[in-house]
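Q: Could you fold this chain for me?
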Amino acid sequence: MSSFLQVRGNEIVRDGKPIILKGASLGGWMCMENFINGFPGHEHQFRASMKSVLGEKKADFFFDKFLEYWFTEEDAKLYASFGFNSIRLPVGYRHFEDDMNPRVIKESGYKHLDRVIDLCAKYGIYSIIDLHTAPGGQSQGWHCDSGISHATFWDHKDFQDRAINLLANMAERYKDNTWVAGYNPLNEPADEHHTRLLDWYVQVEKAMRAVDPHHILFLDGNTYGADFRRFSEVKPLPNCVYAAHDYSAYGFPNPPEMFKGTAEQKAYHEKNYARKSEYMREINGPVWVGEFGPVYVSPEDGYSNWEEMNDARYDVAKDQIDIYARDKASWAIWLYKDVGFQGLVNIGKDTPWMKLIGPANERKKRLAADQWGVDDKEVRHLFDPIVKWVQETVPGFKSRYPPTWSATRHVSKVIREQLLSEELLKEFVLLFEGKSEAELDELAKSFLLNNCVQRDRLCKILADDAKATFSD
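A: Sure. Below is the predicted structure, expressed as structure tokens.
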């Protein structure tokens, strides 16, 4: 029987002894994302479109099987073999609440969450429950599944209160479960005014502690987990770990240069991490890097040196992990499983799912329809003039929030990642038209671990660090 994890000074402790949490995120499971699962657009649009093509009964059947096969006991065994002791479980609010029937919690939403928490506990893995999408969307990003480019969560108290109600319900459910390390109440918030996030954290902490005084809350920084500048204006909340997301420009398309591990490149990683963890040192609190990790290329992407590019990105991951190790920071790499872009394990190309969606997925990549890790080389010549025109026409555009986004990203968000993707989705779901339940089951089985391939070098880098930590 485990004990509740607690915060003590700058450490997370179990039975009074320090523990460093290391693992990955189960993105693409209870919070599907376009680049992880292969569809265009947003999850709520994909689910609604599948229902229109398949009918409600068969669509529900497919998505339930998908959730079942994405993480099974075989996954838990492999995951534990890496030496991981924690897993971040991103969930979307729509599993638990209907927008047309707000505040009525759906018990069915807990079916697979309970199952995976119990599976992980069996193998000594702590779960961190991450509310990855909230009503209205807590950021401008695709991953909050709003389908729009404005974070309306911060404009409506009703949206904020619905999220608190859901999180309090989760806290009540798992209050006695010691294998739940805690809750990550809101993934990558992006509040343009900053203070609304701080106020909401106070409210959600109070509501959750009223029913569950024991579990840790993992609180992301503002502006996608990277900005803690205003946090010092309020008192740190008790038994909370503040969480930074630490992505490297060297791990994505169009980096400043190929990562070679030079002193200057390593200094860039050190500086980024130091900036994002400065607040934690200020309050003498522990650090949890809730997300980090490069994306990878494949032979189909058209680069003759794709293996060299991937080797450089593995080196990026290794360099960042070494920094976290020196600082005794906990971490959760993004992510465990996907269709071949970033995960530790990838869905096999010869599976029914990849054979069915493969051409559509490659087309989506060529059109740069997703936003995450996109390589826009084939459409850049079309969009550069639009971006230039917007910047020249509206000079204030350069100060648009979030400031970390380039003008190109702001424009592509609306035109490609929203408008274009919504139209691509209409074509995409036709691939499933007329499928029987047996055929849908075979498609869902593509996500079983025995139909996946491991990204061996990345797995070894992570396992070597995790096992070294826990053998100390």
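A (continued): The domain at 5-471 is CATH 3.20.20.80 (TIM Barrel).
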